[in-house]
Amino acid sequence: MLDKNGIARRIAQELKDGWYVNLGIGIPTLVANHIPQGISVEFQSENGILGMGPFPTEAEVDADLINAGKQTITALPGAVYFDSATSFAMIRGQHVQLTVLGAMEVSQGGDIANWKIPGRMVKGMGGAMDLVASAENIVVAMMHTNKRGDSKLLPSCSLPLTGVACVKRVVTNLAVLDIRDGAFHLVERAPGVTVEEIKAATAGTLIVPAEVPEMQL
């Protein structure tokens, strides 16, 4: 199965030359480290930067240069900085071609829960609500199961929702799955992972084709 960088590397294959891409907090931020050769993309963060680069080396760290998750980042030549109003105007105006988000749960209907676990202190939903409401192309990066081994791909989400019927593709440590017609459709399996293992780890309805190729990383 994949580790977090493996998930990010697979999602990086979804990138197209010239796209503007928003990377959410967590695993999605690692996508910036795995841009395929021969393409150029602009990474946007809702705290006000367009043109994020990969994570910095120790010598490159600038404590004033951070992403929305407060991680230190690098800026590519030509990067620009702006206020939150401008940043969310870009998001709400659908000027971002791909949004990559982490999630605690995803339902077979495309619902996503990624901002709150009841009983735990949270600062708020942040920009996730705007992203799921405005983006037409949302890919979720997540582990297939939680720490207890319970599936995070469910018939319906049990946690408070961030967005409804908005997720189109999920990339986990076990598989790539598309969401359509009220079900998860298995597209690829992670190296060394069997279809039976994916079935056992998926609580929602799973449609499995006759042939399921292994991810090419």
Outline the structure in words.
This protein is an alpha/beta fold. Strand 12, helix 4 and strand 13 form a beta-alpha-beta unit. The model has no long low-confidence stretch (mean pLDDT 92). It is built from 4 helices and 13 strands. It has a 10-stranded mixed β-sheet with strand order 4-3-2-1-5-8-10-11-12-13. Strands 7-6-9 form a 3-stranded mixed β-sheet, with no helix packed on it. The longest helix has 9 residues. The protein has a single domain, classed as Glutaconate Coenzyme A-transferase. It starts with a helix and ends in a 10-residue tail after the last strand.
Helix content: 10-25%
Strand order of the largest sheet: 4-3-2-1-5-8-10-11-12-13
**What integer value in Å does the Rg equal?**
17 Å
CATH classification class: Alpha Beta
According to CATH, the homologous superfamily is Glutaconate Coenzyme A-transferase
Roughly what fraction of the amino acids lie in strands? 15-25%
Tell me the number of strands.
13
Total number of helices: 4
